Amino acid sequence: MAIENTMDVILHPVRMRIIQSLINQQITAQQLKELLPDIPQASLYRHIKKLVEAEVIHIVDEIPNRGTVEKVYSIHDPNKAVISPEELNKLSKDEHMGLFIKFMANLMGDYERYLNQGKIDLVGDGVSFRQTSLFLSNEEFAEFRRDLIAVYTKVTENKPQKGRRRRTLATIIIPDREKEQ
């Protein structure tokens, strides 16, 4: 599959939500429907099919159920659900901007779904968005990234369970233009 097609598959807002729902778990289409009730069933199945065809998600089991077979989906290789550095380096400025716009649209969709859920408690739910500027040498920045990765790694392997709530965390790092010294 071409690079652009793979990225389009992954970055579609509905498919991104399916991918996020499958992180660290194996679930059926029916369970996905329960997790994503605002997506019409026919649309959900169409997007699951596209992700399977792109080999982003896989069928890991088939369970007989009242004369039909219920498929269980998973992300075998989480690296298939991300865009590699090599793929990113091949993109034009316009393609990078398109990716960034899709990324931001996905975040805005998540936030809108949160706000539309009825009663919300921004403080109690831990909702926040922040921007800050950091002045770091290349070495300090490399250390900062390593520290962030260590913090993320501690919690990204958590499996869904009672008492745990999925939270979306997005980090955007944009360096300032380099100034001649």
From TrEMBL:
InterPro entries: ArsR-like_HTH, WH-like_DNA-bd_sf, WH_DNA-bd_sf
Entry keyword annotation includes DNA-binding: yes
Pfam families reported for this sequence: HTH_20 (PF12840)
Annotated signal peptide: none
Key words, A-Z: DNA-binding
NCBIfam families (alphabetical): PRK06474.1
Protein name: Helix-turn-helix domain-containing protein
Organism: Bacillus salipaludis
